[in-house]
Amino acid sequence: MHEALYRFIHVHYVEILAAFPVMLLLLGLSIAIGIDQYILKQKRRIMLIICTLVFSLIAQNLLDNYLANGTPMITLRIAVDIYGYAIRPVILLLFLYIVSTRKPSGLWWVLIGINTGVYLTAIFSDISFTINEENMFQGGWPVLRSSCMISSVILLGALFFSSLHDYRPLKRKEIWIPVFSVFIILFALLLDSCVHETQQPVSFLTISIVISSALYYIWLHFQFVRAHEKDLAAEQRIQIMMSQIQPHFLYNTLATIRGLCLKSPETAAQTIDKFSRYLRQNLDTLSQSGLIPFKQELEHVKIYTEIEMLMFPYIHIRYDIEDDQFMLPMLTVQPLVENAIRHGVRARDVGQIDINVRKSGTGHTIIIADNGLGFDPSAIDAADEKHIGIRNVRERLEKQCGGSLCIESRQGEGTEVTLFIPLASQADGAPEQEGAVR
Q: Does 383 have pLDDT greater than 90?
């Protein structure tokens, strides 16, 4: 037994070495999938089944190559070929289970059953294929002998259209991973048809399926990251909302309203209306995760500053808005204006904040300038909580719309914050310390 195995390895070591890198890649992939706790259990189970079937397909390729070039064992070779033709469409169907957002129709398994049944006829007939007495492969009826190819192309088409249909509307770039794997397999089918006369231990199709298995595993991790990002975004929206509703601002506003009730009930009623709108817009951050119109953000800024100016009449806000037809992340400008008021102009006898908006050939520019106390901008990048608000506003700008945030500040002179929103960003759309961003 051991001597026969040694002799087999000695004679066919070239074929075995040719398959070794592919098997090593598949083994590593199987181990990674087995210990991975981040992808869904059902998807992980399907991926492990795929890896097992691909291992068996590699073994089928090697055994078929051995039987085709060794002592004729016609019955065994027919059985091995039947398995190979039957299992390839099954693997492609399992890929469809991985990529589809809905459970694939049971009709696909009917197609698999028909394909398997066609090749099972080789046991007692030559209508699909047969192995002649000279140990040569002979195809049967054109349609039947191509059943595996036809089934595979149909399933690849389903993979392609399922990927585009389910993920293209979401504008996800990783959609090209399953699409690319379809073209890899189609190209492998073309290569196999060109070299079918050549000795080939492992077919190009099998190699392409191994590569596609790795690609689908990477694709599953992209889906995990997407889901994780949604959770983080929801948590961040809660933090932003909570950070914007600060006790000192609530207390000061309520105290101002109480004083106005005695002096000017009409003004008090207007302030209550503005305050309720301010609270409502902050609560809206819980349900809005994308970009919002600048007009909506500007309204929120005006409501906030009007309440602040009631409490601090020496603060003045000037608006120079030449462009308001664009989108940006929610609570981007308002926290910076609040920051300018709380840590800048309140300390002046006359506080001045200028908000300017311009449009250029490349994007939209928002400038928030104040005559406040100023600060050291280099401290923003320090790993502390003091400036986490500005870092989060900058991060949301960069991530959600490819924008940028730049700060120029001189202590004792004032601060200028420049936000830039590129034109190409107009598609979809931080916690701060004690309500301020600085």
A: no
Looking at the domain assignment, is residue 242 inside a domain? no
Tokens of 98: 């991985």
Q: Quick one: average pLDDT of 100-117?
A: 90
Q: Are residues 310 and 166 in the same domain?
A: no
Shared-domain flag, residues 211 and 258: no
**Euclidean distance between CA atoms 279 and 285, whole angstroms:** 10
Residue 201 is which amino acid? Answer: P
C-alpha Rg value of the chain to the nearest Å: 33
Q: Could you tell me where the beta strands, DSSP code E, fall in 300-413?
A: 315-321, 327-329, 351-359, 363-370, 404-410
- For residue 235, the tally of other CB atoms under 10 A from its CB is 11
Q: What confidence score (pLDDT) does residue 381 get?
A: 62
| CA dist., res. 55 & res. 2, Å (int) | 23
Say if pTM beats, i.e. exceeds, 0.85: no
Identify the band that residue 163 occupies on the pLDDT scale cut at 50, 70 and 90: confident
- 151 and 279 fall within a common domain: no
> Which of 4-13, 91-100, 270-279 is predicted most confidently?
91-100
Do 378 and 255 reside in the same domain of the chain?
yes
Q: Is residue 240 part of a domain?
A: no
The structure tokens listed for 203 are: 């077919």
β-bridge mates for residue 159, sequence order: none
Number of folded domains that form the chain: 2
- For residue 371, what are the domain limits? 247-425
Q: How far apart are CA 375 and CA 389, in angstroms?
A: 15
Outline where 101-203 has alpha helix (H): 107-120, 142-145, 147-167, 176-194
